[in-house]
Amino acid sequence: MVDELSAVSPEFAALWARHEVGVPAQAVKAVHHPEVGELVFDMTTLAVTDHPGWYLELYNPRPGSGTAARLDRLPRVRLAAPA
Description:
Helices cover 27% and strands 33% of the residues. The chain is an alpha+beta fold. The protein has a domain at 21-72. Helix 1 crosses helix 2.
């Protein structure tokens, strides 16, 4: 995912390369998707230290929740370069 985002966003690539993030915050987040039902994620929030108010949130399917299998039933979305 980092490679795809870096390819379409020079700003993301530069921010990622600097690795300027604070201490991560952990949480569990559940959302209801109208087609596949409940999706449960382990969420990690990283603060970008030199940009107050900026955060990077990572969502990973929570093990044992069935979320990964439900996500596999959704169509894939490819990132495209901005026009």
